[in-house]
Amino acid sequence: MLLSSNPMHIPDGFLSVLVSLGMWLISAVIIGIALRKTKDELGEREVPLMGVLAAAIFAGQMLNFSVAGGTSGHLLGAAIATILVGPWAAILVMTSVISVQALLFQDGGILALGANLFNMAIVGVFVSYAVYNLLLRLFKKQPWGIFAAGFAAAWASIFIASLACALQLALSGTSPANITVPTMGAIHALIGSGEGLITTGALFFLLATRKDLLKLGEASPTSNKSILIGGSLIGLTLVVLSPLASTHPDGLEWVAEQNGFIEHAKAAAYTLIPDYAIPGITNPALATIAAGILGGVIVFAVAYGIARAEKRTAQQESLQE
Amino acid sequence: MPELYIVRNSPIHRLDARLKVIFTLAFILSLSLTPFRAWAAYILFLTITLSIALLSRLDMVTLFKRALLALPFALAALPLIFSTALPHSLWINLSGFQVSISPEGTARFASIALKAWISVQAAILLAATTRFPDLLAALQRLKVPAVFIAISGLMWRYLFVISDEVSRSLRARSSRSGAASASLHTGGSLFWRARVTGGMAGSLFLRSIERSDRVYAAMLSRGYTGELPTGDAMPFSRTERGILVLGILLLILLWLLAILSGG
After folding, report:
1. Which of A44, A290, A306 sits opposite B51 (nearest CB)?
2. B99 belongs to a structural domain
3. How far apart are CA B200 and CA A63, in angstroms?
4. pLDDT tens for residues A127-167?
5. Are residues B128 and B257 in the same domain?
6. B114 plus B195 within the same structural domain
7. What confidence score (pLDDT) does residue A115 get?
8. What is the distance in angstroms between the Cα of A112 and the nearest Cα belonging to chain B?
9. Same domain, B183 and B199
10. Are residues B251 and B122 in the same domain?
11. Is B85 domain-assigned?
């Protein structure tokens, strides 16, 4: 259940180091702002509310319903969290959920966590906030407005986040954009419908029982205008950029090639070693021999380390007995 | 819910959690920095996870199997095999279809899948040998914001309570045939099923928000002032510092090896 691998949690090894670190930087800055804003808004009540709600979202991801042919729709929760507690707090809740999933359940990588946080906690929350608020204003008069807005927000949060994920993979040179973007988009357009339906059902229930809770997210309209604009911008950019990237994959591939951090690092290592250790290593045979020696040293070091540690534990255990 | 921490008496379990966090991060980072086709280096990285599993007295077969978890994602990298953009494409005729197989692309795909598999093993080892509260304390000492640690800690505490609640509501639904499809004439249409599940989600969030009020009241009555108490930070001992330096040195050596042998 909690171990089911989600198509949007990127594991380690699929993103280039440059993309991973860049995403970490962006996510850290935005989560930092979210930490400050929620502290101002909720004060000391912040920790219990966020903690329990994060546990509820985590466990709520077990909720599913059968769709057709053995597939099932289930909840990811960015949209409903945004509607319930507002965007900044929702970012923190989703951040906790996604980090614990990565740290404890290996659902998504550790180095890739920055990108996963960006896609699901930041893009997901920003986009659902923007869509929900804009549609709510548009359908103000209709009684079904809140449901339409909730469905669209939940669907868009999943769909747009998947586009961000596909673009990151393409930027890393892992997957060509003309295949990843349409595939990821199509899969998540479907997953998003499941999310949208459950979110709508949840809104139906909450409207009947605790109408006041649905107002909470709109508590401070002034501070959230930036998110409204930011979310709309993120959504629009990704929607425009993705088809462009998938019809003209050369541009992205060029970026991925430029992104070839490894190649630069390789050149650096080649210049490092002849200068300091073994001159004339440019000869490929010598490089292979050097690699072989290095490998041998490492294997020996590991084996020696294990043997020593094992011996020490054995001694300790015999002492305890 | 599966308990991921596996109780063993081993030197790895006793190691300072900060050290394990730093080493895991460095391990995954250096593995990510290796070029494609550095097979020798990948095998050595695998030896490290294997040795740590051995030292922690964990079952290696379970470790390898659980690490396969990341592999479905490898589908995303699969198109690399058929890439026409990469050099030396072999053309294979499959009953009328021309399929290009790029050896370069295949090697890249295999490298990505292998690196992902080994990285997941490292993450599993961290979770299996470190208790979650220790992990959180270590993260806090490594300068992760305290509020975030407090939220994650509280979440961990209530996760089991709330996931029991979810299991109960799922059981209640299936006992009323609410999960069955409409073709069985028991449940309703797709929209009906979605609404039922949505109602369950709504009531879960409602109950959780109310629970958080009670938790907050209980915390206040025990003297909560907005800060959670944290333990004292112990500096690294000399041996620990030695292990850390040696470990990082080993990773740097491995990375150099990968760069020399890969391409």
Report:
1. A306
2. no
3. 8
4. 999 999 888 888 877 778 889 999 999 999 999 998 999 88
5. yes
6. no
7. 95
8. 10
9. yes
10. yes
11. no
**pLDDT: is B228 or A13 the higher one?**
A13
Q: How far is B234 from chain A (nearest CA, A)?
A: 23
Q: Do A44 and B225 touch (CB under 8 A)?
A: yes
Tell if the CB–CB gap between B190 and A67 is shorter than 8 Å.
yes
Secondary structure (3-state) at B86: coil
Does B33 lie in the same domain as B67? yes
- Which residues of chain B lie closer than 8 angstroms to A76, CB-CB? none
Q: Which pLDDT does position B80 carry in this prediction?
A: 79
Whether pLDDT at A5 is above 50:
no
For the ranges A2-11, A216-225, B112-121, which has the lowest average pLDDT? A216-225
**How is residue B255 written in tokens?**
């990375």
Q: What is the DSSP string of B169-231?
A: HHHHHHHTTTTS-GGGTSS--HHHHHHHHHHHHHHHHHHHHHHHHHHHHHHHHTT--S----P
Residues B126 and B210 in one domain: no
Question: Who among B158, B197, B256 is closest to A294 (CB)?
Answer: B256
**Is residue B135 within 8 Å of residue A114, measured between CB atoms?**
no
pLDDT, position A279 = 43
Residues of A with CB below 8 A from B54's CB? 306
Same domain, B30 and B66: yes
Interface mutation vs chain B, best among A47, A197, A206, most B CBs within 10 Å: A47
Which value, to the nearest 10 degrees, does the dihedral of the CA atoms of residues B17, B20, B23, B29 take?
-90
Domain of residue B157, residue span: 145-221
Is residue B212 located within the same domain as residue B118? no
- Is some CB atom of chain B closer than 8 A to the CB atom of A299? yes
In a domain, B32, yes or no: yes
Q: Is residue B2 part of a domain?
A: no
Confidence of residue A45 (pLDDT cuts 50, 70, 90): confident
Q: Do B156 and A10 make contact, defined as CB atoms within 8 angstroms?
A: no
The pTM (predicted TM-score) of the whole model is 0.83
**What ipTM was assigned to the predicted interfaces of this complex?**
0.87
Measured distance CA(B226)–CA(B216) in Å, rounded:
10
CB contact under 8 A, A109 and B193: no
Q: How far apart are CA A26 and CA A14, in angstroms?
A: 19
Contact check, Cβ <8 Å, B55/A309? yes
Residues 233-252 of A with CB under 8 A from B: none
- How buried is B53 (Cβ within 10 angstroms: 0-12 exposed, 13-18 middle, 19+ buried)? buried
Chain A residues touching residue B121 (CB < 8 angstroms): none
Backbone angles phi, psi at B176, to 5 degrees: -105, 15
What's the structural domain count of chain B?
A: 2
Could you read off the pLDDT of B161-214 as tens digits, one per residue? 999 999 999 898 888 766 565 555 556 677 888 888 889 999 999 999 999 999
